[in-house]
What we know:
Layout: H1 2-22, H2 34-44, H3 46-60, H4 62-79, H5 85-108
Helix pairs in contact: 1-3, 1-5, 3-4, 4-5
Amino acid sequence: MNKFLYWLPRILGIGFTIFLSLFALDAFENGLSIGEMLLGFLIHMIPSFVLIAILLIAWKWEIPGGLLYVGAGIFYLVMARGMHWSTYLLISGPLFLDGILFFLHHFLFRKTPAVSI
């Protein structure tokens, strides 16, 4: 169970980042120059770059990483207010789940023993 709970949030984080990156392909459309398409692609990839940074932090430090994932989910909820509920579920849901899974692994399988007096 330890290995499963170790790898599950990491694989979910990688998969969700790939999923989100697919939306950046919208930048490639007819009528635009190569430079405009590449600039649009890089701008669309900013959320994916942020999620990659969060995943790298969470990979090493589960508590700060879990907080960052939950924070990213809350940020999306605030920024996308007024959208259909399914949009919240599709984007914020995996972020919250990933944060919770990082917390769970840390608290259930802590490597350092509790301090006793």
